[in-house]
């Protein structure tokens, strides 16, 4: 227990760092995922191609490699930002590809007649997607989107290798101070469990309220 009590501030900083990374990267992933899903089903061929390339590249690129590309590659093009911002970009962009596919699968569950009826009333593609299709698709993708955000929270551990304050990185400091590494990882695991259970609880509430009855 002294591993936690003696280093509560260290664990607290790491825990808050992971929460911050998860929140900001999740928001970015949801926005980009929605945008790319819109591109994937757009009537414009160039948009569909861009969305397909985005998903194919990011889903098939190891996240660690993406971190290297963002944190070490972008500064070479003159884009210099705090490492935490780069970590959010890497996590958000990577997860957006999976969010996109989850949303696209939900869109495909909506009968085509719904979109055709909306267009027959004079609605644009954007109006049809945002007002008719997505509200129905959202109900069937709550669970997979939640699973992707839980995976994002766990993937944030990679950021610690790039000088970003997060929960897993606290083991380095405590190991140097001579604390028991096993108990250090036990408390770290408990911290991740709290975060993932919180995300799961939020999406369970959303699913009970708006999810499709099976």
Automatic annotation (TrEMBL):
Membrane topology, from the record: Multi-pass membrane protein
Membrane-spanning parts: 15-37, 49-74, 80-100, 181-206
Entry's localization field: Cell membrane
Annotated ABC transmembrane type-1 domain residues: 15-203
UniProt superkingdom: Bacteria
One Pfam family named in its UniProt record: BPD_transp_1
Mitochondrion is among the record's keywords: no
Keywords: Amino-acid transport, Cell membrane, Membrane, Transmembrane, Transmembrane helix, Transport
Family stated for the protein in its record: Belongs to the binding-protein-dependent transport system permease family. HisMQ subfamily.
Protein name: ABC transporter permease subunit
